[in-house]
Amino acid sequence: MTKGGQTMDTTEILKNIAQRCGGDIYLGIVGPVRVGKSTFIKEFMEKAVIPYVHDEYEKARMIDELPQAGVGKTIMTTEPKFVPNNAATIEFDDGFTVNVRLVDCVGYVIPEAKGYKDEDGIRMVRTPWNDEPVPFNEAAKTGTQKVIQDHSTIGIVITTDGTISDLSREAYIEAEAEVIEELQAIGKPFIVIVNSVDTASPTCKAVVEKLQEKYQVPVLAVAVNHMSEADIQYILREALYEFPVSEININMPQWIAVLNDEHWLKKSFQDTIEESMSSVEKLREVESITDILDTNDNIESSNIATIDTGQGIVNVDITIKSGLYNEILKEIIGKDIKDKAELISLMQDYSKAKREYDAVSSALKMVKQTGYGFASASLQDIALSKPEIVKQGSRYGVKLKAVAPSIHMIKVDVESTFEPIIGSKEQSEELIRYLLRDEGKNDETIWDSDIFGRKLSDLIRDGLNAKLSMIPEAARARLQDILTKLVNKGKGNVIAIVL
User: Fold this and answer.
1) Residue 183 and residue 21: Cα distance in Å, rounded?
2) pTM
3) Which domains does the chain have, with CATH numbers?
4) Could you write out the DSSP letters of every residue in 170-209?
5) Environment class of 151 (CB within 10 Å of its CB; exposed 0-12, middle 13-18, buried 19+)
6) What's the pLDDT tens digit per position in 129-156?
7) How many alpha carbons lie under 13 Å from residue 174 in its C-beta half-sphere?
8) Within 13 Å of residue 325, how many CA atoms lie on the same side as its CB?
């Protein structure tokens, strides 16, 4: 029994369960009659609770309150009982305290048992939840619901393979099914114990396997009458692993986390991680996380690094496929990086380009939105002239003049027309059909269409560039001069542009 690679003893397991339950471990012991529920409580208290209680008076009180186990077909527990009556408090070295109490429920009736009927029929018994006595079988069902729902943090269903008394295995099946289905409906963590005089026998193993297959819950074979502390540790651990997982942390390289959300690798990881997490609800299911993660071709391996059973936190480490980092780096940069020197050189170029882009990025955003944008100069680009004394009437002041370059962008829609004369009308219609052959499927293919030995994209681009280069140098200078005057003279001026 391990936690983070270290063996957990009984007190550590109790502490971890208590952390999941707010400091209270209340075990609801339920099942059919005559399966050893009272014996289980007695053995559990004697080996897992009483030895860790420091107060001798409290120890003596708990021993006096232990239930008495019976033999044969006669029912001993006729009303629910809390053991001990006041929860036992176990204090750990770090000051953490745990309150432990078990609830001995009235068992679900089986016809072959004795003691649930008297001369008037079904025996009437008292319960803490009813003002008046109720029929024995009703007390069993109501008690199980109340105990598990309101008075327990963990349920333990006890049944048997039919070897602990002269009652056959078949006698328990109907009541056993009713109890387990009731606990599944309630939804709290629970396990099933098959009480047997020979837990290694083929008969006992067959019962365990059948119950596990039928109900999909942990089923343990235990000789309740001779439970060891190791058996109790095993039972508690299995109960602990029935608690839900509260948090799963996937540890993978940070460079994957900073990729664009639409990047194929990041999406691949996210999809696999989401699938792995959706398959896990309980602590015992965490191994399935790595099974699903390992199906991703980009993951070399994955493993459960740590499980904090007290908090329900699971940490998973992922090792990615060798060479994946260089592959993604090449994809992003657009070229293969041979060594660190080339990477540093490229980063310097990109850093310079980024600084220049950052200076005009606001203008680009504006021009895309409104058709016009500008970028203010940075502080190092501002030229400050020498301060001058100025006079206004009888008063004097100081004039500070600064000149700074600003970048202005104007969005202009440039038209380019390509009109090939190819002959007849039919030939022109055939060319149109050729150009639009993939319309609605892949609109990009039109640009790759071959016309007179050249791609349509090259022909259109040449036409656009030709128009842009036709603007005379004098006209460009005049546009700059006009914009300078507009900015510096203000909106009150009227400027006429003659083309």
Assistant:
1) 18
2) 0.65
3) 2-240 (3.40.50.300), 247-326 (no CATH), 412-488 (no CATH)
4) GGTHHHHHHHHHHHHHHT--EEEEEE-S-TTSHHHHHHHH
5) middle
6) 777 777 766 776 777 777 788 778 889 9
7) 5
8) 9
